[in-house]
């Protein structure tokens, strides 16, 4: 028990360090661009919420070490917190596009690094996979909010689709069934961040940005639609019992007697 408490204390220290680094990044951004109260408040709420949720998750997971892969994901979440603060601040003043794009680009480039690190170090875990997925989803949501100020509220469909899927699963439990691995699904998910970043950078003409984001949304609708259709068919298909299974069960029962 004492050893478990030691492991838990170390894990909690790492999450606390992450929150401290997040606040440091906010301070650097604030001094660089004169971030207003909305940006500061949003960034601090993100830092506190991440610390609270992650601390609870690592406590329940009973991991012995936070692991290098989770540290990479934590670093990405810190960058996402900075992007979140900048996007919130953009509603009060002109956004620092270059800084926002730079933080987002690094966060996107690091996506996938944590998975490779986990596999190479043998530290893959359910917590790490969920942490990585939530960081990705929230970054897409924040970028959707930012791009929606330029192209319209329909862009929020990109960031909100995953959360709508999770909410729908509460009323339709068949949506919670595990999906088979899919390279297409991973590709579509990665494309969303890239397309939103391109549009958010404002380097291309507005019609081009509109086309890029529409293509991203179309691919996302296709991906979710395909997965929902697969889950629906699977839920309606009764599990098939091999013909030889009853005979095997009978033989086991006779042997047990």
From TrEMBL:
Keyword Translocase included in the entry's annotation: no
MF term (GO), any: phosphotransferase activity, for other substituted phosphate groups
PROSITE patterns: CDP_ALCOHOL_P_TRANSF (PS00379)
Keywords (A to Z) from UniProt: Membrane, Transferase, Transmembrane, Transmembrane helix
Gene3D superfamilies listed in its UniProt record: 1.20.120.1760
The UniProt record lists the keyword Transmembrane: yes
Single GO BP term: phospholipid biosynthetic process
Source superkingdom: Bacteria
One Pfam family linked to the record: CDP-OH_P_transf
Transmembrane segments: 40-58, 131-148, 210-232
GO cellular component: membrane
Protein family (similarity comment): Belongs to the CDP-alcohol phosphatidyltransferase class-I family.
Protein name, UniProt field: Membrane protein
